[in-house]
Amino acid sequence: MSHESFSSYVKVSFLLIANNPSCTNFAGLSVGEMVTTPKFTLLEVMSAIELMEPKMDVGVGASHLKTLDDAIADGLYGDDMPMQLAVMDATLAMVVAWLEGSSLGTTVWTNVMLANVAKITHPLFHPFAAGINLLVRNIYSLVNNVGNLEELPEDFNPQNLFNNQTWMHRRDIIIMMREQMHALERQGASWSKETGSRRAVEICTACSARLEFVTLMLDIMSYLMPPEIENPHFDHKIYVGGHEPISEKDYEDLEKLRLEDAEEQREEPKEDTVEDTSPGKKEHKKNGKKQKRKKNKKHAKQAKKESPKTSPTKPEEEKPNSSSANPAESEDVDDEEEYMEDEDDCSSCDDPAQFTPNFQFAAVLSDRLIQISHLIKNTVILGRRGPDNEDGDYKWLMPFDSKACVRMIPACFPRSVKYPTRMEAAVWWTECAQRIYDLSRLPPKSTKDINMLFFFAQQFTVKSCVFTRSLLQVIMFPTDAHLMGGNTTCAEPIEDSLKNNFMPQVLDKDSPVHDDPLARQLYLNFLNQMSKLAVNVYSSFGCNLSRQRDRLEMALEELAHIQFYAGQVEKRTDEVMIAAKMIDCKEQNSSFHSIASFVFHNLVGIIHYYFELGFRMDLFVPYEFPYIFWFLGEIDAKWMMTTMERSQEIQLNYWKGSSLSTTLNQRRQKEKQAREADLKRRFVVHQFNVLNQYAISLICEGIVKLSVILIRKGIVRVPDGGDEAERLRFERRFEPLQNLGPPLNVNYEQFKAKTRIDELYQVEMNDLIDAAAENFNQAKANLEQLDNTVEQNRTNLFVDTMWSMKRLLNSSELLQITKSNMVACRLLKMMNLEGRKVEWTYPEQLPMYPYLSIK
C-alpha cells in the first residue's frame, strides 16, 4: 500500500450510529459484537487485528535490526568487566528461557553475538559465544533425538541458523575457553597488584567461572551422550583426491594430505593413455592399487595416532605396538592386512563399539559443576545492574535485541515470553547441576529391578526440565532397548522383580514347568510384551507431566491386555503341575496366579502415579475429593496391600517347599543362611510397604469425611446439578479405567454404597468430625510404628540408596499430614470459622495427600 493511500481513509462512525442509534461511539457495541460485511469476514478481521500488533506482527518495530557492528559501536568490546559479566549472565538466562518453553528466536538468538561467532574478535566473548552456541546445538540435538517435546514442535523444528552453521570442534572451543580462563586469572592478579583491591580478582574469577561452567556442561554431555548426538562432526566423511573417504573426526590435517598427494603426482612419470592388458601389466597395476590402499590406510592410522581425540566419551584402550620383534610375525601381519584389503566386501575393522555412558568421569565433573554453579549464583551481583534494578528482556545490554533474529521466530500464535532474571537463572542452573549430578551417579543403581527403575524415573522427572529429562532417556537407552548401552535389556529387571517377589513356577529350575517348551514359549511371549510396555512407559518420563499422563492412559489399556498373556502362562503352569501329579488342583500351587498378581501389582502402581500426576497438575477440585480419595484409599491402597501380602505369601511358601530350607548338609549351610537373610530383608521391606499403604488408606478415609464436613459447612461449594451432575463428574474422572474390569473399574453406585455418602451428609456434625479425627489418629499410630520398624531394621533396608531414603521421607511427611489434619479437626469442632481462611494445602513432596489449614 502506498503512503498516499493512508490519507484517503474516511471516518465511518456515523454509519454505525445510524444503524444502531443506541451507539454514540464504538464503545457502544456490546461485548462480543463485531462490525462485519459480506466482504469483510471474520478471517479478514483477525488478519487486520494482527497487523501492527507487536505481539502478533513480528514486523512491528523491526525497521532496523541490531547487528554485531552496532553492538561493538555501542561499546561491546569496551574494558567494562561488570558489563561483560552481565552479558554472560544474560545469555545463560536466555538459555533458561528457551529450555522453559520459549522459542530460540525470542530468547537465545536475541544475542547478536551467537549468530556471528566467526566475526567476534573479543578474547572473552569469542570463546564464550562459541561454547554457548555448541551447548545450545547439543541440547537441541538431544531433545530432537529423544522426541519428547510433542507439545512445542515449532520451537525445535530445524532452524536455518543451525543448518548453515560451521561448528568448531568441542575440543578447540574448550581449549580456547581454558586459555581465556588462565588469561583472566593473570589479569585479575595483575590488577589486584596494581590497585590493591580484591574486586578485580573477584570479577575475573566470576567471568572465568562462566567459561568453566560451559566447558563442564560440554564435557559432561560428551561422557553421557552418544557421539552421533553430541558431536556435530561425528562420522562426517571428507573426500580428498583419489583417497577413500576419511572421517573428519579421525583426520583433520587435510592440507598436509593434499600437499603429499601433489608431491607424489609430480614425482610419478606420465603413463600411456592406452591400457596394456598383458598379464604382467595387470599384476603390476594390481600391486599398485594394493600399495595405494596400504598407503591410504597408513595415512588414516597416522592421523588417528597424531590427532587428539575429539570425544572424551570414548577413551580408546591402549593398543600394543604393531611392530613385532619377530620379523616373520610382522610379515604375517602385513600379509593378513593385504588379504583383508583385497576382499571387495570387507567391512572396516574399526567399527565403533556400542556406546556406554561414562558415569565415573561424568560424576567427577558434575561434582565440580555444582561448585561452579554456586559460585555463579554468588557472583551475579558483581555484574552491571539494569535500569531500575530490573533485568527485563536485556535490551539495555549491547548485544541484545528482541528482534535480532525475527526471521527465526516460529510462525505460530505468539506466546508471552518470560525472561528470568540473572539471579533466577543462576538458581535454575544450580538445580540443573544437581540433577545432572544425580544422573551421573544413580542410574546404574536403579536397574536392579523394575520397581527401582521406575521409582527413580518418577521421582527424577517431577522437578526436572526438558534437558535433563531427555538426558535421562539417552542415558538409560543410548542407542536401542539395551539399558545404558550394555548387554541388559528391560526384560532382565522385569524378570528379576518377578522372580524375587512372585516366583512363578516357570522360573523355578526344580519345577517341571521350567522344562516345558510350551510354557517357556508362552512365558517369553509375556516377557516380550511386558518389556515393550516398560520401554514405552519409561520413555513417557521424558515428557512433561501432561504428556506423561496422556501416555499413561494408553499404558493402562496395554497392561490390562498383558493380563491375557499372563493368564496363558498360568493356565499352562496348572496343566503341567497337575499332569506331573505335583498338585491335585491349581489352588494347591504355591505360586498360584503369581504372574497375574505381578501384572496387577504394576497396574495398580501405574494408576497411583496417574492420579499423583493429576494432583501435581492441580486437576482436581475440592468438591471432587469424596470420590477421588475413596478410590485412592479403598481401591488403590488396599489392592496394593493385597498384592504385597500375596507376594510375601508366595515367597514364604516357595522357601518352605525348597530343598535348601530343610537341608542338613554342612556344605550348603552358608548358602542357606544367605538365602534366609535375603528373605528376611525382603519381608521387612514388604512389611514396611504394607504398613505404609494401610496408613494411606486411613488418611484417604479421613480426607473423604473432612471433605464432606467442608461441603456441609459451605466452605466448599458443589456446582448445581444434583446427583446426576455428580455421576457425570465421577464417570469422567474414572473414564481411563473403564476397560480394566473389576475391581479397578468402579461406578457411581459402588462409590455411594461403599462410602455411605448420603449418611455422611445426615450424621451429626461433631460425630463426623470425631470419626475423621479417629482415622487420622489410627494412621498416625501406624506410621509411628512404621518409623520404629525402620529404626529397628535399618541394616536390613536399602537405606544406602536414594529410593529407600525417599520412602523414609515420604513416611515422615505422611506423619506430619496426619498430625496437621488432627489439629484441623479439633479447630473445626471448637472454633467459629467466620472470617477464617480454610483451605487445603498440598505438600510439595506429596501433593496428593493434602492437609487442611485454618488461618
From TrEMBL:
- According to its UniProt record, where is this protein mainly located? cytoplasm
Subcellular location per UniProt equals: Cytoplasm
Q: Which residues form the NAA35-like N-terminal domain?
A: 32-118
Protein known as = Protein MAK10 homolog
What Pfam families does its record include? Answer: Mak10, TPR_NAA35
Q: Which organism is it from?
A: Caenorhabditis briggsae
Q: Specify the superkingdom.
A: Eukaryota
Q: Which PANTHER family match?
A: GLUCOSE REPRESSIBLE PROTEIN MAK10 (PTHR21373), N-ALPHA-ACETYLTRANSFERASE 35, NATC AUXILIARY SUBUNIT (PTHR21373:SF0)
Entry keyword set? Coiled coil, Cytoplasm
The UniProt regions of compositional bias labelled Basic and acidic residues, in chain numbering, are 303-320
Pull one GO CC term from this UniProt entry.
NatC complex
